[in-house]
Amino acid sequence: MRGIFVIILLICSLSVYGQTEKRPLWKIQLEGALDNYSRWEVEPSVTFQPFKYAGIGVSFLFSKSLDDIHLNGVSANKKFRFELNDEKVLSTHLACRIAPQFYTPS
């Protein structure tokens, strides 16, 4: 009888321990990529997750510009020619994204 009581007490204590576990409200990520044009992209993001499977996130995207763009061609009616030469562009693209984020249970 005493052994059964100890087992029930252990099972109850395990379930109480599982319920008191806190999940983080804030999630911080850093993502990076190299795209098809050999440009780097870095995107740090912060997500506030008040609910278990939903939250709202803010991220900033930094990307290098295309260097040495050489585009030329002819217009659709064959009357005009165009050419674009842009070398050594010293700028960086910045984008701010605010979006809801949803997660699925694992």
Report on this model:
With 106 residues, the chain is an alpha+beta fold. The chain is 17% helix and 49% strand. The protein contains one helix and six strands. The protein has one helix at residues 2-19, and strands at 26-34, 40-48, 54-64, 69-74, 81-86, 92-102. A four-stranded antiparallel β-sheet has the order 1-2-3-6, with no helix packed on it. It has a two-stranded antiparallel sheet with strand order 4-5. The radius of gyration is 27 Å and the shape is rod-shaped.
Question: Helices, strands, pairings?
Answer:
Blueprint (H helix, E strand, L loop, with lengths): L1 H18 L6 E9 L5 E9 L5 E11 L4 E6 L6 E6 L5 E11 L4
Antiparallel strand pairs: 1-2, 2-3, 3-6, 4-5
Features:
106 residues, alpha+beta, 4-stranded antiparallel β-sheet, 6 strands, 17% helix, rod-shaped
Low-confidence stretches: 15-19
Distance between the termini: 39 Å
Question: Strands of the largest sheet, in order across it?
Answer: 1-2-3-6
What structural class do helix, strand and pairing data support? alpha+beta
Reading the helices and strands in chain order gives: HEEEEEE
In which range does the helix fraction lie?
A: 10-25%
> What is the number of strand segments?
6
* Largest sheet descriptor: 4 strands, antiparallel
Mean pLDDT: 76
Fraction in beta strands: over 45%
Q: How many helical elements?
A: 1
Principal-axes shape call: rod-shaped
Radius of gyration: 27 Å
